[in-house]
Amino acid sequence: MSTTTHSSACILCSQNCGIVIHQDGDGNFTKVIGDENHPISEGYLCQKATRLNFYQKQERLTSPLRKKKDGTFEEISWEVAIKEIADQLVRIRDDHGGTSIAYAGGGGQGNHLGGVFGAMLRTACDTPYIYAALAQEKTGNFWVNGHLFGRQNTNYCEPVGEAEYVMILGANPIQSHGLPKARPTINEVARNPKKTLVVVDPRRTETAAKADIFMQVKPGKDAFLLAALLGHIIQNNLENKNFIVEHTVGFEQIKPHFEGIPTSEYAEICGVPLETIEQVATGIAKAKTFVLRSDLGIEQSHNSTLNSYLARLLFLVTGHFGREGTNCLHNFLFPLIGHSKEPEKGGITTQVTGMKGIGKLFPPNILPLEIVTDHPKRLRALIVDSANPVATYANSTAQRKAIEKLELSVVIDVAMTETATAAKYILPARTQFEKMEATFFNLEFPKNFFHLRHPISEPLQNTLDEPEIVHRIVTAMGEIPASFPILERVARIDRKLPRLRLLLLALKITTALSPNWKKYHLLILKETLGKALPYRNAKAASFIWIAAHLFAKKYKKQVERLGLKAKGYALGEALFNRILKSPSGTLVSIHTYQESWELIRHRDKKVHLEIPELLKWLGELPAKVETDAEKERKYPFNLLAGERRSYNANAVFRNPEWRKTDVEGSLKVNPSDAQDHKIENGDWVRCISSTGAVKIKTVITDEVPAGVLSMPHGYGFTYKGHDEQTTGALANSLTSTEDCDPLAKTPYHKNVRVRLEKV
Ligand SMILES: Nc1nc2c(c(=O)[nH]1)N[C@H]1C(S)=C(S)[C@@H](COP(=O)(O)OP(=O)(O)OC[C@H]3O[C@@H](n4cnc5c(=O)[nH]c(N)nc54)[C@H](O)[C@@H]3O)O[C@H]1N2
Ligand SMILES: Nc1nc2c(c(=O)[nH]1)N[C@H]1C(S)=C(S)[C@@H](COP(=O)(O)OP(=O)(O)OC[C@H]3O[C@@H](n4cnc5c(=O)[nH]c(N)nc54)[C@H](O)[C@@H]3O)O[C@H]1N2
Ligand code: SF4
Ligand SMILES: [Mo]
């Protein structure tokens, strides 16, 4: 059979490593290798990417489906599905206001183009509400970044390989990656005698095993550890005074809060010896370069937002920021998130719980509360795209009940998921290899990149891509016409003679004549410029045209450094063409380190260190140690519910046969706990929390300390021919919507209280 090869990217984590896929005549991915031409991954990939055929060739949705009274689904045509959904959206919007409609998802680790077009659907529904996975991990970070750097959509890179001193805090890059070429990068830092690798984790992870210094913190006690590190630095005048004067404001306001930190008491509480804390604090302060990489271990854990703040202060007060070998802000081709104003300044809040948006996102943990209530302003309709809330949001049972209670629920997915079965309508999407796709996870500095992936597989019959689905619904809602014949012709000429800027002019005239169309510019472009692009199934790439132009205008110098000769408007065109014609991805900007300060969004271009709410929280920390003794008696274990392992990848793979090892997704139990509970290695147990219970296989290992258990997420999805023995357990059967950060509402997935029973 003939084999073809195609450049694309892995869709399993935010690294989106470039890959080359060998495909046979039936569309099977027979081989997947690293793409050496990818500007960042340069040929690297991990074991998961080689199994992508299990995504492309899974049991697919093949028709729009509508739920019948008896709870089963019937196939309906696209025309009927679109019309019924559009009619109900219009009715709900007009009767109850757009705020009674919400959108969830918008893209996972590989597909953000559809999410961009989701904005058009929200415009038609007149709703500001997006619930997203990022709001169950990163919104605390975004909120802190907003205060420190001026906007919630500022973000910094973590160049682990370039620093002399590295701290990995609540992350396990050997398994989860989160940085380019994670394994060789971590290995180099670990082996290099001139570099120091510090790992902070309650579990002796694959990364911790390589560390020079392993700080085995007690689960959920990072705030004490970070406060003690900062306390030691400030109490011993180890802060970088020159940096503080030159680049920050507010140090004098934060200083007293750390002068009083009782470091030895906090060392006791967090379980890390005081000498180690002092050694690391001094090490960071004295290092020439220091980089911090942090992730879910501090975000989905107690004091989540405070942790984000203290972690940033650690590199800021020591002056490790905005230089080579340190954390630096970076730009985005198109920002992944937005910036939300605080409610006091007119920022939008939710109708029932009054939760504010952060980065324009709303947290999954409040979703059921916004639906399951008699409140007249409750959510009545939800459109889910590229997400599986019932499986991946906290408390699966509560999420399912909430979705079932909605007047209208629509799921757009490639497969029949836990959320789809709860919905009223299901719409079958094309996979990420059957359409133009991209992510906005371009998070690098000083050289940043972008990868627009071209479709490489024939789309499955009767499926549509998300931008097209959005377009049809918005059209059926009566907001815009289905096509724009004159503009279409202009777009074709424009592609031949872009210098004349005809399309731009024609768009301006059109929207001046029909002002209501202006807010649907992405859809208009898709139906005009999108059709003029010389590729199949590529209309959504028209969005990149706008992104490239805006980017080239904003980062003129940095784009010119790519060697593009064009100037002004032509520079945007040149960048667009370069992106379109780089199937392996391309660099899009080159900064100097000095220019990273321009990315700060405060007018004075300084870091604003003081965040009064969080300093108050810091002062209240000691009171937070008092735990619920009654609950701990009933549920004696702290479960880390969501470990990244060799064979989990969020909710992307449903067919459990993709796993080569750890098929059941075992629960890690410390030998002493196993002995106390008379558990033998490989026994199945019932793991019970206050919300639910799962049956799970055990593995006895001293990787976890006594009293701590660890299970993976990304298991327990239903798939034909499989049961819990082969799919593993669903972590969110155990988690709760209430156990979450008071400020950002990010869940405490790493602090789930459970007990074990033998089965
Ligand atoms: N207990 C616990 N829960 C967790 C976590 C944890 O550690 N512990 N981790 C959390 C984190 S960090 C994250 S990011 C989330 C991830 O949770 P989600 O965002 O829900 O998961 P994804 O894997 O991104 O995929 C969601 C859906 O996208 C579908 N899909 C794949 N390709 C396409 C496509 O091209 N189009 C469409 N329309 N759909 C497609 C898949 O079939 C899947 O149903 O999970 C969170 N949940
Ligand atoms: N293999 C694989 N890789 C993935 C994914 C996947 O599903 N599978 N998902 C991707 C996604 S969406 C994300 S967000 C990232 C997440 O990537 P990571 O955050 O690196 O992954 P986790 O394993 O969830 O958690 C990181 C570490 O936090 C530790 N931890 C638990 N509790 C605490 C605590 O209280 N304090 C500290 N300091 N550490 C604690 C855990 O033991 C774990 O080693 O991974 C990405 N990469
Ligand atoms: S899972 Fe992540 S690190 Fe592994 S190949 Fe895919 S994108 Fe790269
Ligand atoms: Mo994530």
Structural commentary:
By secondary structure, this protein is of the alpha/beta class. Among the domains are: 3-56, Phosphorylase Kinase, domain 1 (2-Layer Sandwich), CATH 3.30.200; 156-329, Dimethylsulfoxide Reductase, domain 2, CATH 3.40.228.10; 437-466 and 476-592, no CATH class; 627-758, Barwin-like endoglucanases (Beta Barrel). 34% of the residues lie in helices and 15% in strands. It has 28 helices and 26 strands. It has a 7-stranded mixed β-sheet with strand order 5-4-17-16-15-6-7. Helix 2 crosses helix 18. The longest helix has 19 residues, at 78-96. The radius of gyration is 26 Å and the shape is globular. The two termini are 49 Å apart. One ligand MGD binds at residues 108-109, 111, 133, 136-137, 296, 385-388, 392, 412-415, 417, 429, 431-432, 466, 641-642, 650-652, 713, 731-732, 735, 749.
Which descriptors apply to this entry?
binds iron/sulfur cluster; 6-stranded mixed β-sheet; Phosphorylase Kinase, domain 1; binds ligand MGD; 26 strands; binds molybdenum atom; Dimethylsulfoxide Reductase, domain 2; 28 helices; single chain; 759 residues; 7-stranded mixed β-sheet; alpha/beta
Question: How would the blueprint of this fold be written?
Answer:
Elements: E1 4-9, E2 18-23, E3 29-34, H1 53-56, E4 65-67, E5 73-75, H2 78-96, E6 101-105, H3 113-125, E7 130-131, H4 139-149, E8 156-157, E9 165-169, H5 173-176, H6 182-191, E10 196-200, E11 213-215, H7 222-235, H8 241-247, E12 248-249, H9 251-259, H10 263-270, H11 274-286, E13 290-294, H12 296-299, H13 304-317, E14 328-329, H14 367-371, E15 381-385, H15 389-392, H16 396-405, E16 408-413, H17 418-422, E17 425-428, E18 447-450, H18 466-476, H19 485-496, H20 502-513, H21 521-532, H22 542-554, H23 556-560, H24 569-580, E19 586-590, E20 607-608, H25 612-619, H26 629-634, E21 637-643, E22 667-669, H27 671-676, E23 684-688, E24 693-700, E25 708-712, H28 724-727, E26 752-758
Parallel strand pairs: 6-7, 6-15, 9-10, 9-13, 10-11, 12-20, 15-16, 16-17, 21-25, 22-24
Antiparallel strand pairs: 1-2, 2-3, 4-5, 4-17, 8-14, 18-19, 21-26, 23-24, 23-26
Helix pairs in contact: 2-18, 3-18, 4-13, 7-10, 7-11, 7-13, 19-20, 19-21, 22-24
Bound molecules: ligand MGD (2 copies), iron/sulfur cluster and molybdenum atom.
